[in-house]
Design brief:
This protein is α/β, with parallel strands linked by helices and about 800 residues long. Helix content is about 50%, strand content about 15%. The strands form 5 sheets. It has an 8-stranded mixed β-sheet, with no helix packed on it. The chain has a 7-stranded mixed β-sheet with strand order 16-17-18-19-20-21-22. A 5-stranded mixed beta barrel has the order 1-2-3-5-4.
Amino acid sequence: MSVKKSVSINPGTYPVLRIALIYAGGIVAGRLLPSWIPAETFFLLFTLIVSVCVGLHFLRPCHTRYLLLSPVYLLCLLFWGTLNIRIHDNPSRPEEQILHVFDGEKLTFSGAVLSARETRSGHQMIRVAVDSVQISNLPTWKERFVTESLVRSSDSDGFAFESDSSEMGYGRIAAGSYLRFRGDLQLPSPPRNPNQFDYASFLKRQGIHTQVFVSEILDIGQHRNISFWLQQQIRVTTQLDSLFSGQTADLAKAILLGDRSNLDPDLRTAFSRAGLAHLMAVSGMHVGFILLPVWFILPWFRGSRAGKLAGLTLGAALLFLYAGITGFSVSVSRASIMAFFIILARLFHKPGTSMNIIGAAAFLLLIQDPIMLFDIGFQLSFLAVIIILTTLPGMRYLLPPTHRYRTTGTLFQFVMVSVLVQGGLYPVLMYYFQEFSIAGPLSNTLAVPFVQVMFLWAFFCLGLALFHSPFAALLNTPGDMILKGLTSYVTQIGSSPAAWISGTLSSPWVFGIWFFAISLIGSMRLPAIRWKMAIGLLIFLFLYQADQIYDRQLRHPDLRITFFDVGQGDATLLQTPGGRNYLYDTGVWTPRFNSGERVLIPELNAMGIRKLDGIILSHPHADHIGGIISLMKAIPIDTIYQSPLPYDSRLFHNYMKLADDTGIPVRLLTTGDMIYSDTSAPMMVMAPSNRIAARDANNHSVVIMAQYGENRILLAGDAEEEAESFLVDTYGPYLHTDLLKIGHHASRTSSTTPFLRYLNAQKGVASLALHNRYNHPHPEAVARLHKAGVSTRFTSIEGALIFRCNGIMCTEEFW
């Protein structure tokens, strides 16, 4: 007689994880609820619920007490999370009080340098633990806070700056120095373009709420009272410089300590595309190696209670020391807390589950800093561990029993960990970074074993370096060779287009598909759960398909115009109702800034644009064609359209030669030409013309009128008075426009009164940098625009601007 065994899941199996999830839900609710609800409201509700909990605890009979306590505890956790995030989001910060009262004044700061790195633009970014501020002739104001400071190098239209420490008689600033400097205190700038990394939020999550743009360094000295952890970090990084050679020292700091501040940006990108970026984020693998020596001797401590406490203390001290040296990052804090609980369970024979342990780690971290929930490092770290814990056990049973517990089974699990994590994190990686590594599983299989050997060997050599540094450096030769080989491999793989893909999530339903797919893999051995996950997966696949059909066939198409913020330059993207993409100008180029690399290519990737149907270059000045070469190398382009005016510059000749070498057709435009982007939104070329007497490039800008239904959008390039006069004489009332790309960055020589009168534009956008050497926008041009009734927006103030035109009206899309 056979007995059918039922499979059920007890919801109380993971109580700690459940508590962490409920608390995290309260944090999310605190962010989503209206900001005008004060934190005091949540405090009163939290106090009320706690009081109810206490009252219910003594309620009789018992079954009534427990029936009522469960939802009350749930609400208590929710309001606790909500209250905590509101308190952390709106604290009283001394540096912001200074900024509010003394905005615009030069302040003198003194403090210890916590870290220093060089930026892509050649400036130096330092983090300073400020201990005093001198404000004008007032007494020195003593208050401690951490700020990020930029030591600037040269002036370049708002993207590069004024002075460098080396020019003022100082060398490069190093961590541990004590600095006195003068500069402007500012709030970090929010993202300037729709898909740009939110650096202000990134700093905020690290407790940094202001930035200083350094104008003068007054003194650099050695600080004698720097923190213990900073001393150890400086000591370890100094030893690593002696153990490794050249660039491998920077890579060693990244892998051993998570310090990527001095690592070459291109190498960091290559690591990401090769699927090995996690090696430079200190995580559970690193903590496991640090704990390895203690793990094998833990059984010796089980003999007595004092021995157990000693073993627990030893493990905790080692974890705390490593976490401190690496700066208490999210990943190492999570891994250290989990490792501590595992040691506790091993020493005291306490039963527990991995899910409860990870829930406890998340709960403790979020209590200390609820803002951490929105940190990409926190999300990736915990999601990766949860994916491994839920899916790997089921995947192991795909192997035949004869291989399951042999070497082949171990190798299979090793490869599957990388496959599962890389595949499981796909939607999150695409959402945040718009890139996904296909080579990740192969790279991890080949590289991780060597990195593990290097990790252990390097720490052994670090200990020897305390006694004899030259001998330790010689002994570390194998570790140095491993990193050189790793650099060569990553550079080769990361440069291959087949190793990674870029794009964006096509629909938010992908997250539901991802959740149920992971859950289905994790429940393969539980029939009662497996079919529920399969049904959920099918439902979300149906919703995804329905959304795609609606978006492509039923939704009314729009003409979408994005005015990117590229500083003192122009770059406008037109996305037509028929799904075509045209870029009007490509931004600015300077020796230290390229709009194509820094703005346009990342934005196009994030928007899922794989091809440009055309690039229209209004005229060949560097602030309008600056990103063209980078774009030609990065993305397929059907046609380049440009003004027929001859021009002599290296940038112009280089892109013309590249177009010839790559076979991209270049079409010269004059008045009367048409660009048929699609049948619903043709673009008419209104200028240049040989009837314009002026010979400067600005007045021979390609002026485009894009029309969709009743909507007209005029892109005026850098057209000045002569070109505008030609447009008025030639087209007259036909110039009527709904949306105007204001000519020549709102300079005095453009936006003339007759031209604006015929345009009768309701909205206008001027693209320019906030601080530029041309003093744009000019007050006279702004006054003429205002008098003509043009609602003018400036990218210098508001960042990128997006408009949607539905054929009847054009409305702004807020991002």
